[in-house]
Amino acid sequence: MTQDLSVTLLAEAGPESEPLVSFAWIMAVALLGPILSYATGKRIPAVVVLIAFGVLIGPHGLELASEAGGVHLVKEMGLGLLFLLAGFEINPNILRGREGKQGLVTWLICMVSSFIGAYAVLGFTRPTTAVVLAIAFTSTAVGTLLPIMKEQRMLDKPVGNSLMVHGAIGEIAPIIAMATLLSTRATWLTAAVLLAFFAVAFLVAAVPKTVHFFAPWMRRAMIHGAGSTNQTIVRMVMLLLGVLMAVAAVFELDVVLGAFAAGVILRQMVPEKFRTPLEQRLDVVGYGLLIPVFFVCSGMAIDPEAVKNNPWFLVLLIPLIYITRGVPILLRERFANTGSQIRGWRESFQLSFYAATALPIIVAVTDVAVTSKLLTAENASILVAAGSVTVLLFPLIGSLVKPAEDYDEEDPKERQEALEKEQA
């Protein structure tokens, strides 16, 4: 009945009204997602519920919604703001230190092991497809994890700090690898394009200081309009995001590179005392509208029939993602001096599961791979489905494997048991 009604609505809708009908359904499930997540005691993250509803209402499900019209643009802006917020959270000083350098070494180990694992799964054929899978496997969905980490108050703890390091590398490195390894351009030309992009990003970062130097009154105008209906600061952030995403698109790079760069630049532009209020405003814009649309549309891209026809591939991919991304992090944290504050097996296990959580980069990589005909649409659906499962499963496991100091101080017996297990 519902499907018949939706088909009738979409059939009778003209080209202008069809996107609005789709948007209405998307926002309906965007509202329902966190409510159902709360009903499960937050054991199932709202992100996973949104993706599942996306599968249900999308073109491969009840056909209630599609990305036609402006919906696709809203989805792209949601992806962009997700990466901007992730870049805004990352302290560049940490990446310059020992932990950042060791995190890059760990990522390279993950990349090699992921390629070997993917190549083996493919029967040691199609090496280019193995590269696609390897890039997807080595990503970390730090933007997706941020709400979970904030909710569990982990950002100021050793696991949270280390996750931001691995998350930053797990977003930047796969994007650069995607640009260089999956590009149809010559390697030297791709390198030149990347350098040109970073040069433009540097110039964009210098614009506010230049404007302030030549026109000091502009700063006063921005501050005056920040709290009014003009919302000048938020508009400036959206302009920064739009410009760098557009530059990345013009250079035929993935837009997430521009979005992440926008977040890093924004952090350097905003004084520390103003970062929290600004982040709160961006959370309203992002998590209130744009980001939920991205997650629902990501679910709409999954073809359940493709997963049904190759269930073994999905079952194989999920542990493979952890083995090739999580296990190297676990072993390096335990047996190498990475410069982190991680102590004990519990924190190492927890970090490994959080860092192996992947989705947005998987969506980006599969889009590029399908367009370049390096991956079939069916396999792309399975890969996105596997990423969605990691968002559900890995943070859940990570929250269960909590360090001893996170146990309630009022229960000394439980804390003592945890300490004994950690020391064993």
**What number is the mean pLDDT?**
82
Task: Determine the structural class based on helices, strands and strand pairing.
Answer: mainly alpha
Shape estimate: globular
Taking the sheet with the most strands, its summary is: none
Q: Give the N-to-C terminal Cα separation.
A: 58 Å
Compute the CA-based radius of gyration. 22 Å
CATH topology of the largest domain: Na+/H+ antiporter like fold
Task: Figure out the total of helices.
Answer: 20
Q: Strand-and-helix sequence, N→C?
A: HHHHHHHHHHHHHHHHHHHH
Q: What are the segments in which pLDDT stays under 50 over at least 5 consecutive residues?
A: 407-412
Q: Please identify the top-level CATH class of the largest domain.
A: Mainly Alpha
- The total number of structural domains is 2
Task: Briefly characterize the structure.
78% of the residues lie in helices and 0% in strands. The protein is mostly helical and 424 residues long. The termini are far apart.
Structure commentary:
There is one protein chain. The chain is globular and about 65 Å long. The chain is mainly α and 424 residues long. About 1% of the residues have low confidence. Helix 2 runs antiparallel to helix 3 and helix 9 crosses helix 10. The protein is built from 20 helices and no strands. It starts with a helix and ends with a helix. The chain has two domains: 69 residues; 352 residues, Na+/H+ antiporter like fold (Up-down Bundle). Keywords: Antiport, Ion transport, Membrane, Transmembrane, Transmembrane helix, Transport. Belongs to the monovalent cation:proton antiporter 2 (CPA2) transporter (TC 2.A.37) family. It is a multi-pass membrane protein. It is found in: Membrane. One of its GO terms (biological process) is proton transmembrane transport.
